[in-house]
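Q: I'm writing up a methods section and want to include an example of the input and output format. Could you take the sequence below and give the corresponding predicted structure tokens, formatted cleanly so I can copy it straight into the document?
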Amino acid sequence: MASGYGLNGGVSRCFPFWQELLACYAVNVSGDASGAGKVKCLPVLEDYYDSNVPDKALRTMELQRAYHKAEAAHPRDDSPQVGSIRKLGLLDTHGDPESVLRSPVSPRKN
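A: Here is the clean output for your methods example:
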């Protein structure tokens, strides 16, 4: 709300951002005719706009969701193959995948 009070009587969600923006302008812009001080306040101004209009956050989430969907639809071409994983030496199977299934660590089926 423009008064700085929210709907429930407390401070609105944007009021701290507005105070920060006013403080930035008071420190950097007062008496500056060239406009160089306004450039310093651009990140603070963007934060204030984001608090007023939450569409940017929603748009970002939609872009991330679309990116993950496209990434899942096209698997990597350079994904590691089974042979290259076994060559790392982390599995003590000596090339026999059945020995892993028969190992005492894995549960046995009765």
